[in-house]
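ARCHIVE CARD
Drawer: 12
Card no.: 0347
Subject: one protein chain, sequence and derived structure
Cross-reference: see card 0346
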Amino acid sequence: MGKDIIADHAIWPRLEDAIFKVNNECRIAIKEKGRDNIIDSTLGTLLDDDGNLIAFDSVYDTLKEMDKKSIASYGAIEGDEAYLDLLVDKCFASYKPDAYIKAIATAGGTGAVRHSIWTFSNQGDYVICPNWYWPAYHTICEEFDREFSTYEFFDEDFNFNLEEFTKSLDLALEKRDRVICIFNSPANNPTGFSIDDGMWDRIIDQIKIRAVSGKYINILLDVAYIEFAGDGSQKKFFKKFSFLPDNIITTVAYSMSKSYTAYGLRTGACIIISSNEDIADRAFDSMKHSNRAIWSNITHAGMNILVDIENDEEKKKSYENELEENRQLLEKRADTFIKSAKELGLVHFPYYGGFFLSIPCENSQDVAEKLKEKGMYIVASKGGLRFALCAVSEKKCEISPKLIKEAIDEINK
């Protein structure tokens, strides 16, 4: 008999999310000192220059017009067919891989990550990931008793560190027969880095070399920020996942949270890519079973929004205009921050798009505390600071590098 009413596998320390903790502190500071005197670089939500959450009119006008019966009704367990077909087309655009493709609706991109880890690995198998990553990857691996292993993301020239990736892959496959390789690109959270097409060729070559008989590799592409990562050409890399060996399966975690400013609607999909139709079908069947076991079905309103917008040319154009307008907003903020950082000699990782960029530094927690004294609230990780371009006005992006450099210098003097 166990020693606790809570089952052994379900015992975890009380979760205090570091990001939401610093966000709560920031909110208190704003109330006390005024928004103009505080720089809120905490959450990964898109805010306007006055600190208000941006919610696309095209999306929420569509929701307001929706028949309440359509909102209230259940969707299919696997997701509505029209939604899945349109989402796959939207994700890949004209770069759909030459493979068997199946998609299943999930609770945001998180649900798709969860499904991949559960479906393609066993207890004790390795999930490998760069050391600049979204913390939920680790949390999901803890929940399922998977070994979460990281490698150095960048080499000395700030390129993707192929050597360290292959070492990590070799170690995982030496110990186990299955491995999941997570790539959060383009527009990585938290760095804004994107793996270029030439490097993708080299990564896939190394994976293919190691996909020997009896070994199984899942390439998990988390593309949550892809619609904010460029003008569309950033999707070319999807074609590279064509004609891969049967024992390599690719999954894409696609989310409506960022691209539709629909964070709370929890709507996304796991897109399965395989050269083998039977494998793609069986992966789909497994994930459908998981859907039923976890959330039964996905929010109908979220699926309906995508379908309604994509099937109405006027709404679609309005949505695309809003997306582009806000992509440019992020681009301007990033350009302003990067220009100011360059003038000051503040080092940051290469930024190609998305909601964040990152500054490597020692003693990052101490630096973050020092920045609070200067009116900036920022998320610290083991290796540095995550700056939320999505939440900071262009004017404040201009002054932020100076504050960050001052804090780093003061802590490390």
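Annotation on reverse: DSSP finds 14 helices and eleven strands in the chain. The mean pLDDT is 95.
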